[in-house]
Amino acid sequence: MKRNRANKQAGYTLVEMLIVLTIFLMVITITSVSVKPFLQQLEIKYFFKQLQLDIAYSQMYAMGNYKDAFIRFYPENNRYVISPNGYNQKIIVDRTYSENIKIKLETLPTKVIFRRDGNIEKAGMMHVFHHDDAYRFVFLFGKGQTYVEKL
């Protein structure tokens, strides 16, 4: 007697499919949990890098145009702006940052001024909070040098 091979189907059983889906979901869950802290770390790293670049830019603007450059911080709006010579001047840079980042100006005034020679008018410090982490961002006297340290 010949068996009909047309009725024979090759495939996966329901149990095999459920096992594969369970493993797949476990891998996705583990990956998504481990990516979140990495993205938070990138967010604060990017913020500090961008701020330091903007500080260098305002210093170069002051020296290149022979005008004072102002960096004004608006912590309540998660924003800072760079403009030349005062309040009624056009804004050169208007930068917003993540709502996860909070700035508390300690000894740093809300208006940081770079003089025409590239030196900062007044050194100071601010605290930056990001999720559960705290950082100290310091403006030093001299040619716009800054540093960040984790508290």
Automatic annotation (TrEMBL):
PROSITE patterns: PROKAR_NTER_METHYL. InterPro entries: ComGD (IPR016785), N_methyl_site (IPR012902), Pilin-like (IPR045584). Its main location: other. It holds the Pfam family N_methyl. SUPFAM superfamilies: Pili subunits. GO terms for biological process: establishment of competence for transformation. The chain crosses the membrane at residues 12-35. It is found in: Cell surface. Signal peptide: none annotated. Keywords: Competence, Membrane, Transmembrane, Transmembrane helix. The keyword Transmembrane helix applies. GO terms for cellular component: cell surface. NCBIfam families: ComGD, IV_pilin_GFxxxE. This is Competence protein comGD. It comes from Schinkia azotoformans LMG 9581.
